[in-house]
Amino acid sequence: MAMDVRTEIEDLRQKLEYHNERYYNQDAPEISDYEYDMMMERLKELEAAHPELDSASSPTKHVGGSAKREAGVKVRHNVPMLSLDDIFDQEQVTNWVNGMRQRLGNPEFVVEQKIDGLSMTLRYENGRLALAETRGDGLNFGEDVTQNALVIPDVVQTLSDAPEYLEIRGEVYMTRDNFSKVNEKQEDLGQKPFANPRNCAAGTLRQLDSKVVKERGLSMFIFNLQQARGREFATHTEFYDYLKSEGVKMIPDYRICHTPEECWEAIQAIGEKRGDLPYDIDGAVIKLNRYTERDVYGHTDKVSSWAIAYKYPPEEKETVIRDIELTVGRTGRINPTAIFDTIPLCGTKVSRATLHNQDFIDSMDIGIGDHVTVYKSGEIIPKIRKVLHEKRPEGTVTFQIPDTCPVCGAKTVREEGTANIFCTSQTCPAQLVRHIIYFTGRDAMDIHGFGEMAVEKLVEAGYLKSIADIYTLKDHRESMIRSGIVGKEKNTDKLLGEIESSKERDGYQLLAGLGIPNVGKTAARTIMDQFGSIDRVMAASIEELTETPDVGQVTAEGIHFYFSQEGNQEIIQRLRDMGVNMDRIQEEAAGEELSGKTFVITGTLPSMKRKEAADLITAHGGKVSGSVSKKTDYLLAGEAAGSKLTKAESLGVAVISEEELKTMLGI
Q: How far apart are CA 344 and CA 497, in angstroms?
């Protein structure tokens, strides 16, 4: 055997396991479903051709996920929650259906949509919902997400005509409208938006706080009967009729088919309307209708053998870029978007696609006037596949994002370690709302009452044009009460009282709230420990700033640049004139047991929040950092520790639990 075959197999296995982890456990895929499917098909081909290299641990033999414990404890599956094999063309559909017909005679098939979401099973005991669980590893364990399932409107909690025990499986998903709303809020809060509705639904279902689940608006379709005791169902469609009678939402618009031609026609019909659906689908499923015939086929450790998933090929169209539009998000990030001739794609008309950042533009060599091919990622988000440089008009050049903000004209800077370019102006209208929310947030000045809606109204009404204007709101008390912009007299006075109290906050909280790149709460505390006051930080040179622990060259340059801007100097002076504290408040140490030690905190701790743990560490002389490095002494790890735990183990950093931290402190 050629060594390159063995190497290719091992390489594919490693890549697929990596992408399984990204997709199933981190809800953050890096490649499209189609690219993943093609890698999996290639591995199956190689393993079939070289059975001597077969392995029980191959990703072709198991479901990609694992049971995590973010939303609840692990639970053992009563019935495995398996996956399906994929097929990609009409010939494969025909072969699979005919194979079933040859063995079973004249079977019935049901063809239905394959919803792109997260699988969840519901267990009912005597008609009452007893447990909801995720797929987890598919074969043995999932996660208990019952409390979250209770706030999903489509989850029926009581069945009127119920058997003794009923277990049903469905797909939790998010509509495109709800997905857009969630991402708008993520951007408003300065947080990373979700990549697609499936990732958002998966991450939401695993939330610890069911209020977040309810707020984000998940939906669910039921697609399978897992187990029933006390009632017999002969077919899948009979089971669906029962669900209808109980008001349970199941997969809509399914078809009963008997021949390969009928199955293919049903698949095509689903494909034609997928762009018009309010949710994403990632294929169509063909399944045997009669349960006795399903029993003939059974399942492997990974897939149910009585059903198959057809995956639609990604649709691509050629078009011409007519312009590249630059917008500024509420985080200050410059977002380039290609504007091209309108094309029909997956049932909808599209004329725009994100270009992400300058690195993406450079890597593809994209310019205005270029011919490009466009596809839809996840059947919803238009993306540019490639540039047809052979059709490039004369004079077309690679587009460059300018070094000034397209909204306010301020200088732009590139964020350390990323390809993102940001506007540096704290008064830029495009990011003012986000900046005020951040400044007043818990990790900065901690001024209660500045919710998103309140800030938007105050900005729209002209009360706030910069963070310094927060401290002039007292001058507008009467007009604010008359307008009810944050409520009547009681709420207005409460907010003004919070603002007044915030003047006494520690100077490091003010520094954190300024929104300087890479200067969050932890870094701000360290910097203010070093310099003692905002004035001394403003006067410091880049070289002096880099002498501060964990402040590198890029961060130091960012701090120096921020305070060199006249507009920012004016804001600081206004804050000083209004009595906002500019100095580090010396904290009374509870002890020095952790002096000289650097900690990183990750995961969910048993009895305290991360902020509480950080405060406890610093109170005893220790230091808390946001990232693991060779300088880290301890990683304080709770449940769902993630990538920081992996990095700590690779660097040989000591990993401790909350209990071990308390032991170190004698508490």
A: 55
Q: Which two tokens stand for residue 365?
A: 């060599």
Gyration radius (Cα) of the chain, Å? 29
- Catalytic residue check, 273: no
320 contacts 370 by C-beta, under 8 angstroms: yes
Q: How far is CA 554 from CA 147, 415, 521, 533, 569, in A?
A: 45, 9, 18, 21, 20
For residue 37, what is the DSSP state? H
Q: Give the single-character DSSP code of 286.
A: E
Neighbours of 162 (CB within 10 A): 18
Taking CA atoms, 585 is separated from 419, 529, 534, 581, in Å, by 36, 9, 12, 9
Spot the catalytic one: 114, 287, 317, 376.
114
Q: Is residue 617 exposed (0-12), middle (13-18) or buried (19+ Cβ within 10 Å)? A: buried
Per-residue tokens: 613? 């743990």
DSSP state of 342: E
Q: Phi, psi at residue 140, to the nearest 5°?
A: -120, -50
| One-letter amino acid of 396 | T
User: Nearest-CA neighbor of 97 among 84, 111, 83?
Assistant: 111
Over the stretch 600-625, which tens digit does the pLDDT of each residue have? 998 888 888 887 888 888 888 888 88
Q: Please give the sequence-ordered ranges of beta strands (E in DSSP) within 379-486, or none if there are none.
A: 381-387, 412-414, 421-423
CA 261 to chain centre: 40
Compute, in degrees rounded to 10, the torsion defined by CA atoms 162, 163, 167, 171: -30
Furthest C-alpha separation in the chain: 88
Tally of residues, the chain: 667
pLDDT tens-digit map of 436-464: 988 999 889 999 988 888 888 898 899 99
Q: What's the burial of 122, exposed, middle or buried (CB within 10 Å: 0-12/13-18/19+)?
A: buried
Beta carbons within 8 Å of 232's beta carbon, 6+ residues apart: none
